[in-house]
Write a structure and sequence with these properties.
By secondary structure, the protein is of the alpha/beta class. It has one domain: Rossmann fold (3-Layer(aba) Sandwich), CATH 3.40.50.1820. It is built from seven helices and six strands, in the order H-H-E-E-E-H-E-H-E-H-E-H-H. Strands 1-2-4-3-5-6 form a six-stranded mixed β-sheet. The longest helix is centred in the first third of the chain and has 23 residues. It is globular, with a radius of gyration of 23 Å. The N and C termini lie far apart (about 75 Å). The C terminus is likely disordered.
């Protein structure tokens, strides 16, 4: 009887140790960005001569063309270096799996980008020279450069941003480039699960954009999420 109790105790300890090791083992990522994308870094010239640092992640599958999905941020597009990858590229994991050419840009005057940063830079309606620049012209010049220099694009672009990047999204869409087909912009005031549900509803179908056109997001996101527009 005593020997049986010892055996049971040893089995229990072994199972407990195995369980602890299993819990300590880090979970494998659901989607390996580096396996599916190639990262490039560019300093894209603006019309006034300033260069904006831009990281571009291109799908390794070259059997089809892809739209650009752009995010412009004052918070850094780190990690820097073509061999350093983000663990996630789009608003939700589904975007990474779906396949876009992801474009991440340090806005003017921030981190690796040249120029002077202006807090919520005002839009210039009547631009009289190449020195009259704003976030709208910066996105226009960025898209124009991307279309000409990044292969395997399908000629379409979308831009997204939440919180402060949402401001740059909204400011960038004024007088927009003809290739800009979709935007989604809004404050980061939704619960985490709500943001995930909203991001999933932004998914494209059959390689067409289904990003939401809604503004202001705080008032209209719930309605817009029910009827995403395919572009």
């Amino acid at each position: 009887m005593f020997g049986r109790r010892i055996a049971i105790l040893l089995i229990a300890v072994s199972l407990g140790a195995a369980g602890a090791l299993a819990q300590a083992k880090p979970d494998a990522p659901e989607f390996d960005v580096k396996e599916h994308y190639t990262k490039y870094e560019y300093r894209i010239p603006m019309r006034d001569g300033v260069h904006l640092f831009t990281a571009v992640y291109v799908p390794k599958d070259s059997s089809q063309s892809y739209p650009f999905l752009i995010n412009r941020t004052p918070y850094s597009v780190a990690p820097y270096g073509v061999d350093q990858y983000r663990s996630r590229l789009g608003p939700a994991a589904e975007f990474d799996k779906a396949g876009y050419i992801f474009v991440m840009q340090d806005v003017r005057g921030r981190y690796m980008s040249e120029g002077t940063f202006v807090e919520m830079r005002p839009h210039i309606d009547n631009k009289k020279s190449n020195q009259d620049v704003d976030d709208s012209s910066d996105l226009y010049d960025t898209i124009e450069w991307l279309l000409k220099n990044v292969p395997n694009n399908n000629g379409k672009a979308g831009i997204w941003g939440i919180s402060y990047p949402g401001f740059f999204t909204s400011a960038s869409m004024i007088d927009s480039h003809p290739a800009l087909k979709a935007i989604t912009s809004g404050p980061d005031d939704r619960p985490v699960q709500g943001r995930r549900r909203l991001s999933r509803r932004c998914l494209h179908a059959r390689r067409k954009f289904r990003l939401l056109r809604f503004f202001p997001a705080a008032n209209e996101s719930a309605t817009a999420a029910q009827s995403p527009r395919a572009l």
